[in-house]
Design goal:
With about 240 residues, the chain is mainly α. The protein has a domain at about 65-195: yst0336 like domain (yst0336 like fold, Orthogonal Bundle), CATH 1.10.3560.10. Helices cover about 55% and strands about 5% of the residues. It has 9 helices and 3 strands; from the N terminus they run αβααααααββαα. The protein has a 3-stranded mixed β-sheet with strand order 1-2-3. α1 (about 10-15) packs across α4 and α5 (about 100-110) crosses α8 (about 175-185). The radius of gyration is 26 Å and the shape is globular. The termini are far apart. InterPro entries: PBDC1-like_dom_sf (IPR023139), PBDC1_metazoa/fungi (IPR008476), Polysacc_synth_dom (IPR021148). It holds the Pfam family PBDC1. This is Polysaccharide biosynthesis domain containing 1.
Length: about 240
């Protein structure tokens, strides 16, 4: 498995988020790596991360700012982000199914957040106290329906861009699913897919052009060689 290195900004976000739950009365959990659409996602969780699984399940107040735990969370967060970004880059997002209850999540989301702009998210619409009050009942509806519904997960603000420091925030897993399912169904994530496919197509075409040029040069060289042989043969006959 390729090593996954967590950028420093993740630790800053973890320290801001891991000591408090997005929901009252619900134990905070962090950074799951499973998605229904990616059967290979579990393979991305290394042995080192499995060994700290028990620690990751403990409530926030029991570990403080343990750097090893923060590193494990950050690595798992990045792994999840990499899996998802590769997914929407290689498959038309409109055909993706992220959970077994995508229809329910999308229906409830748009019923409660009909006018929420999702192509470019405003963090205040997710993180402010008034926003949390509105999100809390929506999220709690999926407690027991969506596995690990309140795991912390990386969410992109601008759906046309990747997971950079400026474009990434932590969000509960159900919030990630709600927004990304809507982005997929409403066509916003197609920008990522189209960009990646265009780059791959251009790369393939450039490779073909180089191959054609090489073949032309080789053919020309062969023709010159044949002419030279013919000329020498003619001289000998004389």
């Amino acid at each position: 498995m390729n090593a996954v290195f967590a950028p420093p900004f993740l630790f800053k976000e973890l320290r801001k988020n891991h000591a408090k739950s997005h929901f009252r009365g619900v134990k905070p959990r962090f950074v799951g790596c499973k998605m229904e659409a990616t059967s290979g996602a579990d393979d991305l969780v290394s042995g080192e991360l499995v060994s700290v699984a028990h620690a990751l399940s403990l409530p926030a107040e029991s570990y403080g700012n343990d750097p090893d735990i923060e590193m494990a969370w950050a690595m798992r967060a990045m792994q999840h982000a990499e899996v998802y970004y590769k997914l929407i880059s290689s498959v038309d997002p409109q055909f993706l199914k992220l959970t077994k209850v995508d229809d329910q999540i999308y229906s409830e989301f748009r019923e409660n957040f009909e006018k929420l702009r999702i192509d470019v998210l405003d963090p205040e619409e997710l993180k402010s106290e008034s926003a949390k009050e509105k999100w809390r009942p929506f999220c709690l509806k999926f407690n027991g329906i969506v596995e690990d519904f309140n795991y912390g997960t990386l969410l992109r603000l601008n759906c046309s861009q990747g997971y950079t420091e400026e474009n990434t925030i932590f969000a509960p897993r159900i919030q990630f699913f709600a927004i990304e399912i809507a982005r997929n169904r409403e066509g916003y994530n197609k920008a990522v897919y189209a960009t990646v496919q265009d780059k791959e197509e251009k790369g393939a075409n450039n490779g073909g052009d180089k191959g054609a040029d090489s073949g032309g040069e080789e053919k020309g060289a062969n023709q010159e060689g044949e002419k030279e042989k013919t000329s020498k043969g003619g001289e000998k006959e004389k």
